[in-house]
Amino acid sequence: MSLSSADIAHLEAVLAQGKKPKVVFTDAAGQVAGRTGKVVALDPAGVDDFVQVAFGSDELSFSAAELRLPVPGEGARRTAPRQRAAAPTGPGLLPDDAPEAKAPVTEPAPKPVVSERKTVTEPAPSAPEPVVKKKAARPRAQAAKHPELTVTLTYEDGEWSVAAARGARTVVKGAKVAHTNALTMCQASGSDEVNEVVSEVVEKIRSEAAEEAARLRRQLEEAEARLAELK
After folding, report:
1. In this structure, which long-range contacts are made by residues 35-40, counting pairs with CB atoms below 8 Å and at least 24 apart in sequence?
2. CATH number belonging to domain 5-71
């Protein structure tokens, strides 16, 4: 057995009341299996160890498979009250003050010493607490508050632009970037693959610029020729 979704909801409700609910370690917890602890915090949005449990002098994080809720009455001591045997009574017994019931005694018989023994449950000698090695809890809460920042550099229609997103939310979209600055950003990555792709883009830009320059020169020559005809 392990913690189900309903069990986790129950633990959240108890923690919300300021209480620390008890849980039992399952076989998946290793050496501490069968022992009990108290939940001090939990993060249901976590992936692995999201239940923080205090037991003994330790306080570690566990997964749902390593814990379960205690069954009713589990861990409670059941000690049946010791009852004394009732003194035998019945019609065959005579009162002590009846003279006919007393037998002649030449020497008083010694009174038996009756010692009342009480059952005392002594705690078993405590074994040294096993050392449980758990991986350190990851700062999930901090990661959730500060999602990763993604920056994307794009070249399209002869222009460079940059976009930035924090987690699933877009922070910057389509900001223009100068050609020189874009090349500097790509070279700063230190990646041969990126430099190879950027070189192809730069070569395409040069080719397009050369074609545009040639077209403009032809147009200029045609315009100068018409001008010369009009003189």
Report:
1. 36/70, 36/75, 39/11, 39/14, 39/15
2. 2.30.30.50
